[in-house]
Design goal:
- The protein has 44 residues and is largely without helices or strands.
- Strand 1 and strand 2 form a beta hairpin.
Length: 44
C-alpha cells in the first residue's frame, strides 16, 4: 500500500487500533481533531 501524503494540508494519522495510516476525508472535515480510527470496524 502506498504511503499517504499530506492531503488538503492535513498530515496522515495512524489508527489507534490497527496501526494503519489513513488520510483526511471530507466527511471528517468538521471533527478531524477527534478522529482516532480508520474505519467503523476499528472503532467497534
Amino acid at each position: 500500500m502506498p504511503t499517504p501524503k499530506t492531503k488538503n494540508g492535513f498530515e496522515p494519522r495512524t489508527c489507534e487500533r490497527c496501526g494503519l495510516k489513513f488520510e483526511w476525508r471530507k466527511k471528517w472535515s468538521k471533527d478531524w481533531a477527534s478522529v482516532k480510527y480508520c474505519s467503523k470496524k476499528c472503532k467497534g
